[in-house]
Amino acid sequence: MRRRPAPSHPTWARHRPGCDVGWLLRRVAESDEVAFAALYDATTPRLFGLALRVLTDASRATEVTEDAYLEIWQLAAQFDPRRISATAWMVGIVHRRAVDRLRSDAGTGATHHPDDRLHASPCPETAPHDWARFSPEHREALEMTYFGGYTYTQLAEAIGVSPAAAAARLRHCRPA
Fold it and tell me: What is the distance between the alpha carbons of residues 81 and 29, in angstroms, rounded to a whole number?
């Protein structure tokens, strides 16, 4: 009978339901490689899943997820738990990278625009499983921008409203 290899990080760091991602991220900010491994284990399914949903290609989603983890390692010290949850912060990084990749691959030349507040600071607290509370029109706008990479202007053209009306639909979906 073969013995299983020992875990690469201590038991305290292995992902378990209810794992404190915020605590792990604060440890990563102190260059704790063991905590980074645990953070990776705890969050990869969700972060890769988001990238895959946006990009619809596993290879590109893997690249984006790997790049996002490098960014998370580099920027962990900038994370502020008073402003946003650790998971939401990381989801925002992955989402921004996935949308940028989607736009880059489409050859549009579109880049992240600071006024595009949904993309600058996506609201992962309003995750897709919570979107049922929105009207079909609001859900459609969220899906097109969050997963489709649409800008306000592209969204407005696609749904036949003014850019201001498209932006208003998205603002309606943001938490107070």
Answer: 12
Number of neighbouring beta carbons within 10 Å of residue 11: 7
Q: In the structure encoding, which two tokens stand for residue 36, read together?
A: 């980074």
> Which residues have C-beta within 8 Å of that of residue 106, sequence separation ≥ 6?
149
Domain boundaries, the chain: 17-112, 114-176
User: pLDDT (tens digit, 9 = 90+) per residue, 35-65?
Assistant: 999 999 999 998 998 898 888 889 999 999 9
Burial letters for 156-167: b for 16+ Cβ neighbours within 10 Å, e otherwise? beeeebeeeebb
Which pLDDT tens digit goes with each residue over 17-31? 456 899 999 999 999
Task: Specify the amino acid at residue 128.
Answer: P
Dist CA 44 CA 70 (whole Å): 13
CATH of 114-176, one of 1.10.10.10, 1.20.810.10, 1.10.3370.10, 3.40.80.10: 1.10.10.10
The overall pTM is greater than 0.85: no
